[in-house]
Amino acid sequence: MQRGVATLTGNPVKRCFGTAPMINAAVARAKREPVDPARIKVSDTVLALCDDALAHHRGGRFAEAIGLYERILSLGFDLPEIHNNIGHAFGALGKPAAAAISFQRAIEQKPDYPEALCNLGLALADLERYDEAEAKYLQAIKANPRFADTYNNLGLLLKQQGRFSESIQAFERAIELAPGKFAFYDNLAAVRPFGAGDSHLSALETAAKNSAALPIADQVQLNFALAKAYEASDRPRRAFRRLLRANRLKRAQITYDEAGTLDLMARLRELNSREFIQARQGNGEPSSVPVFIVGMTRSGTTLIEQILASHPQMFGAGELPLMDQLAGSIRGLLPGVPAFPEMMSEMSPEHFRHLGMLYVNKLAQRAPNARRITDKMTVNFLFVGLIHLALPNATIIHAVRDPVDTCVSCFSTHFTRGHEHTYDLAELGRYYRHYRQLMAHWHDVLPPGRILDVHYEELVNDLEGVARRVVAHCGLRWDARCLAFHRTERPISTASATQVRRPIYRQSMGRGRKYEEFLGPLLAELHDHTLPQPGA
Fold first, then answer.
1. How far is residue 247's CA from residue 413's CA, in Å, rounded to a whole number?
2. By the 8 A CB rule, do 456 and 402 touch?
3. What ranges in 75-215 are assigned the alpha helix state H?
4. Alpha-carbon distance 446 to 421, whole Å?
5. Using an 8 Å Cβ cutoff, are 460 and 504 in contact?
6. Which of 11, 16, 185, 223 is least enclosed by beta carbons within 10 angstroms?
């Protein structure tokens, strides 16, 4: 998922948590209150635990940090800063519901705690409780009108909802309050591109002159923001040089198991033979409600979903991690069995049906009256075989875009989380090649017509013709509202949130040609793919 960079406020790992001085001061206050010597001794222990917890937290060892924070609570130091930190750690682990509970506990103890209010807003936004999230952001601003992170997060929320003028105002205010936070510029540039002479572009260029002195995370944000500004002002060589720098810095900060990732795709092809599929199909949950939109990120999946979500009988649920989660739950029913995909060999017809039923039940909670509900988690292309066996009547749509345009768009995006393969051109090319091999395999082993390929370039050039075909593939009658997709009001949390609010346009086709001189490592891995012609 890519939403722009949100902050769980004020911390060095992009989310806000209480710093050591803040917590130590809180513990010291509590330490002064008791007169019991035993209590004072416990306080000294708590200070040591705080230091240890914060070290784990900063190091990204969030589960261990939570354990230490909870031990502090168990010793009688029920501090709002500790609850805020626990919430941050849960948020970093992708558990917004648990995070929200901890932030709420912090606020109950300290109602005007702006960091916790802002953090709770982000957790609620992750839970798609958008009105409540906005209310918490406004509370945080009231508690601290100079709290730049809250304006940034509010801007992202407003952007998701298509309220672009309000979003711009929020980002502008965030930059005014914290001109050294370059993520804010990047978020603003996604809504209002910086042209030549723009004061924000000038500020970024000034900062770039001494960027080596900045923390690496700030350098990454600065270079992504500059790249976006230079591309918007038609300076492609400057833009891509900044992208190369941003991605090189980002790649050095993350762990990516390329061998394991590519091996998974190879194992999927080996396991899911035509004979394997035929021997197991026909036993799943028969519901036709799910519509899966799969493919590479930045390949047009959001546009396809927005077109379908404009149909009155369709609900667009966005990116859902359900297939991955439910595959894990099925494995829990098979003790001693290897993980996905090998576990599929041990699954009975009942297991496939149970998985499909669990998926449909969770999906239906989002829109009980919809005839079809989309799930556009792009990486579900790994689960196409499992989807076919567990949900034989589900719709599967594969978004396809020119490989170079797709990869350049990925390389230009600073993702909120995941997508570790996108920060090096050669790694990105290898990933793309293996993904296309896997999709070709699914076409080969599944029944003809099971997967509908939707080519971005064809969709752009023949919107109605392709949209009609997609709607028919979903088993629905045509509705002309699908052509006015840009008017459909629904939250969109991906990097395409601004693009799909506009009528169809062609500027993104042939994007890779502008950067041909820089793309050698990518093209070498894509092998037989060539640069697209403009307007092809």
1. 9
2. yes
3. 80-92, 96-109, 114-126, 130-143, 148-160, 164-177, 182-189, 199-208
4. 27
5. yes
6. 11
Can you give the length of the chain in residues? 536
The DSSP secondary-structure symbol of 531 reads P
How far CA 82 is from CA of 43, 111, 121, 157, 342, in Å, comes to 14, 15, 18, 26, 41
∠1-155-179 over CA atoms, to 5°? 105
1-178 adopts what CATH topology?
Answer: 1.25.40
Contact 395, 473 (CB under 8 A): yes
> What is the number of H-type helices and E-type strands within the chain?
24, 5
Strands 290-295 and 314-316: unpaired
Predicted structure pTM score: 0.85
Q: What pLDDT is attached to residue 27?
A: 54
CB atoms within 10 A of CB 514: 18
Helix orientation angle between 114-126 and 130-143, rounded to the nearest 10 degrees: 170
Q: What 8-state DSSP symbol labels residue 145? A: T
CATH label, 258-526, candidates 3.40.50.2300, 3.40.50.300, 2.130.10.10, 2.30.29.30: 3.40.50.300
Q: How far apart are CA 428 and CA 423, in angstroms?
A: 7
Tokens linked to 532: 């697209």
**How many angstroms separate the Cα of 50 from the Cα of each of 14, 32, 59, 197, 329?**
20, 17, 14, 47, 35
Q: Radius of gyration (Cα) for the chain, nearest Å?
A: 24
What is the pLDDT at residue 86? 95
pLDDT tens readout for residues 239-263: 999 999 999 999 999 999 999 999 9
CA 295 to chain centre: 15
Residue in 500, 494, 456, 187 with CA at minimum distance from that of residue 319: 494
Cα angle 128-362-316, degrees, rounded to a multiple of 5: 50
Domain with CATH 1.25.40.10 in the chain: 1-178
Q: How far apart are the first and last CA of the chain?
A: 29
Distance (Å) of CA 342 to CA 260, 337, 345: 14, 8, 6
